[in-house]
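We emphasize that the prediction below concerns an isolated chain of 328 residues; any contacts that depend on oligomerization or on bound cofactors are therefore not represented. The input was used exactly as deposited, without trimming of termini.
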Amino acid sequence: MTGSVAPEADWDRAPGLLDGAKELALGPEQCNLAYWITEVAQGTLRERGVTGHHESALVPAFLKRPGPLREALTLEFGFRGLSEEIATRLLSYYVAIAPGIPELEFYATQLLDEARHARVFRNHLVELGLPEATLLRDIEAMAAEYRRTVLQPVEDFTLDIVRDQGDFIGGVAVFAIVIEGVLAPAAELSERKWTPLSPATGEISRGTAIDEIRHLTVASTILRDHVAAHPEYRPRLLEILRAGVKLWDEIPDKPFVIHREELFQQGMADHADLIGDYEVWPGVRLLDTTPEQRYAMAERWTDEMAEARMAYMGLPVEVLSGDRGDAV
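Result of the prediction step, given as a C-alpha cell string:
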C-alpha cells in the first residue's frame, strides 16, 4: 500500500476500529463515490477484493476439519453474513430518501460495503469446507432462531423509521448509533481473537473493520451537523436513540454470543501453542480469558465508543445508558 491512500483507508496505517471510531472525524462530502473508488476499492481492497484477504493469508488446515473452532467460526461468520445481507437491503431505503448528493453517494457506498461484507463472510465458510451449493440454505437454517429473535426486531424498528416514516436522519441514528454502535465492538473482538489462529480470518475482519470506521464516523458527522442546523430535531433524535437502546436491552443476543465463545474457548485450548502469549487486549493473554470476560469487554468497548461519538455530536451519553433524566 502506498502513501497516496488516505491513512484511514490504508491497510497498514488505518487505526483499529475502536480508536478510529472514537477519534476520527469524516463527513459525507469527503467520503463520496470518488473517495470510495480510489481509497477503498483501489486502496483498502487492493489484492483483497475477491476473498477479503490476501492470497498469502491462508486458512489453517485445522479450521477445515470438524471441531469446536470451526463450529464457532461457522456460527460467527454465518450470523454476521446474514446480518450484513439484511443491512444491505435496509440501506436501499437510505439511498432512496437521501436529502442530498453527498448523503446519497455515501450511503450508496455503504450499501456496497455491506454487500461485500456479507459476501466475504459467506465465502469464507466455503473456504472452511462448507458446501457452496447449499450454503445459503444452510445459513438460513442455522441462523433461523437468531434471525427471528435478534435481527427481525431490529430490522422492523429500522424500517419503521426510514421506510414508513421517511425519516432519513432518524434512520442514520438507528443504523450508526444503535445497530453498528452495538455490533462494532463485537467485530473488533472478532479480529483480535482470530488473528493469531487464522491469517485469512483475521484479514477479513480487519478489512470490514476499516469500513466500519468510515460508516460510524461519517454518520456521526451527519447527525452532528443536522442537529446544529436544526436544533428543533434534537428531542426527536434523543427519542429514537432511547427507543433503540430499549430495543437492544430487550433482545436476547447474549446466549448466541456466549455459545460460540464457549466453542471458541474449547478450540482455543486445543491450539494453545499457536496463540502463546498473544494479548487480546493490553496486559491480558487471549488464553487467560473466558467467554464471559470477552463478552464483558465487548460491552465495555461499546460504552467507550458510544461516549466518544455522543460527545462528538454534542449529545448526552446518558441517553444510551437508559437514563431518562432531563437529558433533552
